[in-house]
């Protein structure tokens, strides 16, 4: 496994982005980028990519980093309807490639909350703990670059925030994998997965604790130790992230979304949403109306895109 690091005190430069939906038996073409990086995040189905003699299967929530100068290509076809987000960017600071021998010291640095870290750190491949927030960033970026008021500055800062979120999730997941013994670690991941899968049910701290034979207090201590937040805040964060997806991707009313996510009533949902996001659900929906599938963006100041987004390429 290789790891990529660069400083973002000067933001990354957005190049292009989109969401790709595969035709039946679509296979990723062979490419080698000259300067830009690409991040692929699985949305549906599986995408099969070979890079640096390593085969990767990108499933929903998986993140694959494709750096410049290294050829990559599809080694197997994907099923019709499989899809993924993709985004290309350029770096404005020196770039470093790290190995497994370097990574432990880097993780310690990134985990130190007393220091301000102005870098990002990404592995070639990892799985998100929670795909909600990265997906929201991607949709916001697509909205910005497809709007008449598009500016490079807005896209660059959103892109940088998106990659910071990926870095934080990678650091958290790596730290979790090293902490405690394997049994405790696996059980905590099982808890996170249980909450994610059941985010549209009537979840509470008590129901999760009972499911895994913890007391509510013990469970909350476990969450604060590993994620730095309480069990309830984690549950609410996932529910609000799911609500944001529904607000952007569906025509469901606020009341219907409240019902889907098992909030006790519409007013409570609206109050909680504003507490977490700073705006009401309606204001959030109105702020990001434009996302596009299979979009292609080309900046005239940059080279001709290496990666096209026509369906079935």
TrEMBL record:
The keyword Magnesium does not apply. PROSITE patterns: HTH_ARAC_FAMILY_2 (PS01124). The keyword Signal does not apply. Keywords: DNA-binding, Transcription, Transcription regulation. Signal peptide: none annotated. GO terms for molecular function: DNA-binding transcription factor activity; sequence-specific DNA binding. Coiled coil: none annotated. Gene3D superfamilies: Homeodomain-like, Regulatory protein AraC. InterPro entries: AraC-bd (IPR003313), Homeodomain-like_sf (IPR009057), HTH-like (IPR037923), HTH_AraC (IPR018060). This is HTH-type transcriptional activator RhaR. The gene is rhaR_5.
């Amino acid at each position: 496994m290789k790891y990529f690091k660069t400083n973002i005190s000067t933001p990354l430069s957005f190049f292009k982005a989109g969401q790709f939906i595969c035709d039946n038996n679509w296979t990723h073409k062979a490419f080698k980028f000259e300067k830009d990086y690409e991040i692929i995040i699985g949305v549906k189905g599986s995408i099969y990519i070979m890079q640096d003699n390593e085969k990767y299967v990108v499933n929903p929530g998986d993140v694959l980093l494709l750096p410049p100068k290294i050829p990559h290509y599809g080694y197997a076809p994907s099923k019709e309807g499989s899809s993924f987000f993709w985004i290309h960017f350029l770096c404005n600071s020196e770039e470093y490639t790290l190995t497994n021998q370097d990574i432990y010291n880097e993780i310690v640095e990134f985990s130190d909350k007393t220091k301000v870290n102005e870098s990002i750190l990404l592995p070639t491949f990892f799985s998100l703990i929670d795909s909600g927030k990265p997906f929201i960033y991607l949709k916001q970026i697509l909205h910005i670059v497809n709007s008449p008021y598009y500016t490079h500055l807005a896209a660059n800062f959103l892109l940088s925030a998106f990659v910071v979120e990926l870095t934080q999730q990678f650091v958290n997941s790596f730290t979790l994998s090293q902490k405690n013994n394997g049994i405790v670690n696996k059980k905590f991941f099982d808890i996170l997965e249980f909450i994610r899968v059941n985010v549209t049910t009537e979840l509470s701290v008590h129901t999760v604790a009972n499911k895994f034979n913890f007391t509510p207090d013990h469970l909350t201590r476990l969450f604060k130790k590993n994620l730095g937040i309480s069990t309830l805040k984690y549950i609410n964060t996932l529910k609000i992230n799911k609500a944001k997806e529904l607000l952007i991707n569906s025509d469901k009313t606020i009341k219907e979304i409240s019902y889907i996510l098992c909030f006790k009533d519409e007013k409570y949902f609206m109050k909680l949403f504003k507490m977490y996001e700073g705006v009401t659900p309606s204001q959030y929906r109105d702020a990001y109306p434009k996302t596009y599938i299979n979009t292609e963006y080309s900046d005239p100041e940059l080279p001709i895109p290496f990666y096209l987004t026509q369906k079935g390429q």
